[in-house]
Automatic annotation (TrEMBL), chain A:
It comes from Fusicatenibacter saccharivorans. Transmembrane segments: none annotated. The gene is acsC. NCBIfam families: PRK04165.1. Keywords: 4Fe-4S, Iron, Iron-sulfur, Metal-binding. InterPro entries: 4Fe-4S_dom, Ac-CoA_synth_d_su_TIM-brl, ACDS_complex_subunit, Dihydropteroate_synth-like_sf. GO terms for molecular function: 4 iron, 4 sulfur cluster binding; metal ion binding. This is Acetyl-CoA decarbonylase/synthase complex subunit gamma. PANTHER family: ACETYL-COA DECARBONYLASE_SYNTHASE COMPLEX SUBUNIT GAMMA, PTHR36214. Residues 1-59 form the 4Fe-4S domain. Pfam families: CdhD, FeS.
């Protein structure tokens, strides 16, 4: 069971040597108790205490690494079931499925389509990070050539292959990229585990039901292999959801270490051919505990909502999401278009930019550095003031924009005089209180020729 | 060793709220397990799917939605088609045209539309106002009055107008009342507290705790829903045990991902498919966190979400 900071402190050498990076042994103990540091960071812990502690303080869910270089991803390592308790640490990753049953043309077309969705959203790269390469049992050579082709993309591969010979041959050509061999089950786990260990890759384990999955994982752990992910896909959508949720809940809430691994949910199996159902489930399993979600297609229609959702769900609840300060021209705005300024809180940015786009009026949206806080909060904290706004405009806007009109949020109407005195030559216009009123406001400005 | 199941059993449940009259009713809420956790215990009722239409008819609707309603010329005919949509459990009429900053239709004109729709269909009905507090106080009071006996859900009473809307819908005309708050567990609870103090029966309240499209600050929606369900079930908080209804269509169809035309963003592909995708994914996320009902508008979204719910029951 989890130990408290005090219990851990009693076992430390109490030297306050600072070698672990903490000012005192007490501080170190508290961090270990929270799971923020590993007990091995203390060089003076006795072996006895170490053994006792590493068992008790080991995280409930293992952190598994896959891929290499720029395509290395961390899975698992979660400590909570809900994002409001603490941050979710490892984002859900998405894998597009390929199968050795497909024709070469189909495969090439799919890989080509997959390349197209790769974009940036608030400073984060968005693309399906993985490819799921399924073996349909139709010849090892065919599979190996597919795996070779897939490996050439540089994406992390998940080999869906329960056939030991095919798996062995496939690993030969792709093991350097640290793929996942998703192929162990109750009948072949010994052989598969050996293959995965020898190739130094993560092993995916599945079971006909949750009990068989539990038994198989235990058996593989006995063989000494703890580099696993669990394929929680079952025969139906309902059972898949049940297994995926129960596996995560058992590991985090009921400290069932056997289930303390990341999961794979294969939508290509449970909603085959149904693009919209796959999207519904994509969203459901991003929310509820899919570490890797396999789907047949990741076009922009799938990507735009799900990457937005993922970015939202996996943010630190204590740290607001920020957008990069700067000038964002909207609706074809140029240097002569009016400026509208607000803060860099991502939510504010999205609401305001969305409404401005709907108005259709060309405008330069100027995002200030306000510490990622909302308008009133940053104003109250002195981070969105006459000084900061005028400084930002002088340094970043005046040489780029010729218009000398700026619209400020209605909630900080009080800043009008201050800004006008500090930004000579600028006319300050006060916007309405709420973003939803911007469409009408902007259209009225345009109609009255005040731009 | 086989897996040791530890079902999360709660000694509390979400209240069941029935809307509709006669033999066409729908029950929202009633569950005592977390969303779709059928492995912990039987889920009573299961989440429901509503179809949204507005008093603006087909104006401004996406082409594929228009195609579904082809041939429907009056609001009554539109309502009939909406009610017959595959997967629909109830109908939601949103009186968007009442917005003083928009068309500013008169209360009388809107009430005529409400009557026309109500007369055309016998399915359970939800009526949503125009979001303007002053207009809604008058409009929704009138809605509650003319639909007496239909047992409709009137949306929404807010902090600013709960006295007018709550008193009319919940007390005078015994309808069900939607309590709308802005994505915050404390505000949601506070509104339920003051509404019940006003005399509205706690069993007549359905919460709309706010929503957003995925990608647009949706993390607040997730955490608000998660925390409300946790408080309602594990702490038996009676003032948070009302079922939750979440309007999805009105949030998702006007974000960039659904609005950008194919000329503006050629690489994004079909605008219609993007719109449906935003609606489906937002609805699924909302249900996963604990909405007891979602309001959608595209036939494809209604069919898919309804099927997903059936699959998970």
């Amino acid at each position: 069971m989890a130990l408290s900071g005090i219990q851990i402190f009693k076992m430390t050498p109490k030297k306050n040597c600072k070698e672990c990076g903490c000012p005192t042994c007490m501080a170190f103990s508290m961090k270990v108790a929270q799971g923020a540091m590993d007990i091995s960071a203390c060089p003076y812990m006795s072996d006895d205490a170490m053994a006792q502690l590493s068992e008790a303080t080991a995280p409930p869910m293992k952190t598994i690494k896959v891929g290499t270089g720029d395509s290395e991803y961390t899975l698992g390592g979660e400590t909570v079931l809900y994002r409001h308790e603490k941050t979710f640490v490892s984002k859900t990753r998405y894998a597009v499925s390929l199968c050795s049953c497909m024709s070469d043309e189909e495969i090439d077309a799919k890989l080509e389509e997959d390349k197209k969705v790769d974009y940036d959203r608030i400073g984060e790269r968005m693309c399906a990070e993985m490819l799921y390469v399924n073996y349909a049992g139709n010849g090892v050579d065919k599979y190996v050539s597919l795996v070779t082709k897939a490996a050439a993309t540089g994406k992390v591969l998940v080999l869906g292959c329960e056939d030991a010979d095919a798996a062995k041959a496939a690993l030969e050509v792709c093991k350097a990229g640290k793929p996942i061999l998703n192929g162990a089950n109750a009948s072949n786990y010994e052989e598969m585990s050996k293959l995965a260990t020898e190739a130094g890759v993560v092993l995916g384990v599945s079971g006909a039901n949750i009990d068989e999955l539990h038994d198989t994982v235990e058996a593989i752990e006995k063989l000494g292999n703890k580099n696993l992910v669990l394929d929680t896909t079952e025969a139906t959508i309902k059972e898949t959801f049940a297994t995926t949720v129960q596996v995560r809940r058992a590991s985090l809430k009921d400290t069932d270490r056997t289930f303390g691994y990341p999961s794979i949910v294969n939508l290509a199996k449970i909603a085959q051919g149904d693009r919209y159902m796959q999207q519904a489930l994509l969203s459901l399993f991003t929310m509820k505990y899919g570490s890797i979600i396999v789907l047949e297609e990741m076009g922009y229609a799938e990507a735009l909502p799900v990457f937005g959702l993922r970015q939202n769900v996996f943010t630190d609840p204590q740290k607001p999401m920020k957008v990069e300060p700067g000038i964002y021209p909207l609706n074809g705005a140029d240097e002569n278009s009016i400026c509208l300024t607000t803060v860099d809180f991502a939510l504010t940015y999205f609401l305001v930019s969305g409404e401005l786009e709907r108005s259709g009026v060309p405008v330069n949206l100027v995002i200030n550095d306000a510490g990622g806080l909302s308008v009133l909060t940053s104003w109250a904290a002195g981070k969105f003031s006459g000084n900061s706004i005028s400084k930002f405009f002088k340094e970043n806007v005046e040489d780029k924009v010729k218009s000398r009109k700026v619209i400020i949020p209605g909630k900080v109407a009080v800043l009008k005089g201050d800004i006008e005195s500090k930004l000579p030559g600028w006319e300050v216009i006060v916007a309405p209180l709420e973003a939803v009123q911007l469409v009408k406001f902007m259209k009225d400005l345009q109609a009255n020729g005040e731009l | 060793m086989p897996f040791n199941r530890k079902p999360q059993k709660f000694n509390a449940a979400i209240k069941s709220v029935v809307i509709g009259s006669g033999d066409k009713t729908v029950t929202l809420g009633g569950e005592n397990v977390l969303p779709f956790y059928a492995f912990d215990g039987e889920i009573k009722n299961g989440p429901k799917v509503g179809v949204e239409i507005t008093d603006l008819g087909m104006e401004g609707e996406p082409e594929s939605v228009k195609a579904y309603y082809e041939g429907a010329a009056t609001m009554g005919e539109i309502a009939k088609k909406a009610a017959a949509m595959e997967g629909a459990d109830f109908l939601c009429l949103r009186l968007a045209g009442g917005d003083p900053n928009g068309l500013n239709k008169s209360v009388e004109e809107l009430i005529e539309t409400v009557k026309e729709v109500a007369d055309a269909v016998d399915v359970p009905l939800v009526v949503e106002g125009c979001k303007n507090v002053e207009k809604d106080s008058e409009l929704l009071t009138k809605v509650a009055e003319v639909l007496q006996g239909r047992n409709v859900l009137v949306m929404s009473a807010r902090e600013e107008d709960y006295k007018a809307v709550g008193a009319a819908a919940g007390l005078a005309y015994s309808q069900k009342v939607g309590a709308e708050s802005a994505v915050d567990i404390n505000l949601a609870k506070q509104l339920n507290v003051v509404m019940t103090q006003l005399g509205v029966n706690a069993d007549s309240i359905v919460m709309n705790v706010g929503s957003a499209a995925v990608g647009y600050g949706y993390e607040y929606v997730v955490s608000t829903l998660d925390r409300i369900k946790a408080a309602a079930l594990s702490q038996d908080d009676k003032m948070l045990q009302m079922p939750i209804i979440t309007p999805i269509a009105s949030e998702t169809w006007n974000v960039k991902e659904a609005m950008a035309t194919e000329e503006e963003s050629p690489e994004w592909g079909s605008q219609e498919v993007r719109g449906i995708s935003m609606e489906i994914q937002t609805a699924a996320a909302s249900l996963a966190s604990g909405s007891d009902a979602v309001i959608l508008k595209h036939p494809q979204s209604v069919a898919t979400i309804s099927k997903m719910i059936q699959e998970l029951m």
